[in-house]
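Predict the 3D structure for this chain.
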Amino acid sequence: MQTNNNIPPSTGPNSRPPKDIRKEILNRSLVLYYIFVGIALVIIGRMLWIQYSPEGAELRKEAEGYISFNVERTLARRGDILSHDGRILATTMPLFHLYMDFRAEGLTQEKFQANVDSLSLALANFFKDKPARAYRDSLTRWHRAGLRYKRITPRRMNYIELKELCKAPLLREGRNKGGIITDTTYRRTFPYGSLARRTIGSVNATGTKVGIEGNFDQILAGEDGRTRMQKISGNFWMPVKDEQNVNPVDGYDVQTTIDIDVQEVAESKLREQLASQEALWGTAILMEVNTGEIRAIANLTRHPDSSIYEDYNYAIGMNMEPGSTFKLASLMALLDDAKASPYETVDTEGGVVRIGAAKVVDSHAGGFGVVNFLEMFEKSSNTGFAKAVNRYYAHNPGRFVDYLYKIGLNKSFDLQIKGETAPIIRRPGDKLWNGTTLTMMSFGYAVMLSPIHTLALYNAVANNGKYMKPLFVTAIKDGDRVVESIEPQVLNPKICSDQTLRWLKQGLEGVVNDGTAKILRNDHYRVAGKTGTAQVAKGRFGYTVNGGRYYLATVVGYFPADKPKYSCIVSIETFHKFGSSNIYYGGSLAGPVFRAIADKVYSQATDWADEVQKPILGSTTKRITVENSVKAPEYGHPFVRGGDRRRLDSVLMALNIRDVSIPNRHRDGLVAIDSGFKFRELPENPSGVPDVTGLPLREAVYVLESRGFRTEATGKGSVKHQEPTAGTAFVRGDTIRLTLDL
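Done. Predicted structure below.
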């Protein structure tokens, strides 16, 4: 029998019907679907139970102990505040604590036992807070307990200290072999101590913002980052890679207009004057004429315990009656607005006149007789100004006030630092305007100005009529790159006519040469200025309190008078008890501080070098123009400017000046002394130039500048080489050149 091989197997008598594969897959999928839905419902139900059941709070609290990840804020580095020449006035320095992981893989029992005594001795010698045995006991106990993150340093250290301590046994082996862990925090530090601190300012924990730090807080602060952290053991967290990590963006640097060398002179001389004359407070401001940049601003208060420190910015925040310094505005109005002649005369009438209800008295008994308007200004005659202003404005006092407004004296500056007070110049019809107001305004009463507003007016005269906004910050920087440049701002391009300016300048020079500011007169540079001695009213007590009066003594002006570069104001308030010998006049009280500041600026400004002359051999006069200018000690106090030893020698030889000790160095060996009448040698740095190789640039600059050196750097990164080298005997103020490794 033959088999039919063409018959399909499925058609055989014992074959089963084929399965529906698709249906079977679908059924299995549905089963899985229901399983997953069921699991999801169980999870959701569990979550709701944990969230809302009575035991939920306890369970959530228990779960917190098992969380092993967290996101922490990574602080951005705050930018620096720089002087006008790039020196650091405020910076953020890293401070370090050292921790140890006593279970580090490379820190074996044998290694720890072999080095614990040496490490303990190193810690004791470094911190000097307890004996080495105490350190050894603590380290041994922590090692036995297997602690993972234990602090071994009693206080935070700076980078130099950290570098030195990490030379100790175990610590020098790093994290894996020695178990060392470094914890870093940041602190704001000031290389020049208290100098200009109120202007530099601060931002404290409560959010109070002062000075440049406060006004530029967002720019300095930068933007913090975020870092995902993982708990390893105990409370020790380690950063881990995560796509949500955000690196911090460091803050920008802020470059100010401050000249720290002039600032030091301003503060020291102002402090000396407050102490010696028992004055209450004082302020001094130095402004660059063409730009309005503030080169120095000092504010000091003498407290009841005789301590003197900076606690208020009088320069911008103290509104007071300016007294005779306001006569510049009155004279300007007479000459420019009223078209009076500077040679028009007025009779001071024996120094006492009555104009309506106002009694006006000159400080000089008997008055000045008949004087013209320029002489009236030079002599600072109250009676003369009262009569002159009333002569032209009594019928229309509003016109006088309008002219002051036209100049801009009534407006705030909107300064780059907080605390400015607005000037108060009343108009006819105001609540406090009366029949005496115009008369009192003419010689500096019944108006309120801060010192910086008075200075700006005098600066405008020096600047050929251009009224500048005082400037404290000139640039926002990212390292050497200027992110934003802040340009000088002109508030009024011309406060008066050129002819009026010439008369005003003539009058201001006359005050110094023949008037009340003779203390500013010198043989080296010409000064134009004005003094003021204003009585200070004390509320309901008026001008007389406790058997005496309060006075505001002021000197304001500019120099050199022929080519003005800087303007300056010094104001000091003092209490003068009747019969006291303490001085209170503007020239004698504020004048020495003005003179010290001007002398400092002049002594370091090599572009002002004038011809120096001195009779030689009795009949011959030899003129020499050099980078150094020296005045013979027997003819007054000396001035020395930038240059080297050879130039000093040539000048002294040509001027026949002998017996002057000059240090045997190629660099400047002399300094100008504004009150000593002799040369003196700059002190050496006792420990020489410090070693800053290996330090990051910011830390190196801080170390050097906090010890009085200047710095120049090329490259990026850390210091690879310094010139001069560490230990070299060098003069404070000289420049250390740094080469960085990138």
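The two ends are 100 Å apart (CA to CA).
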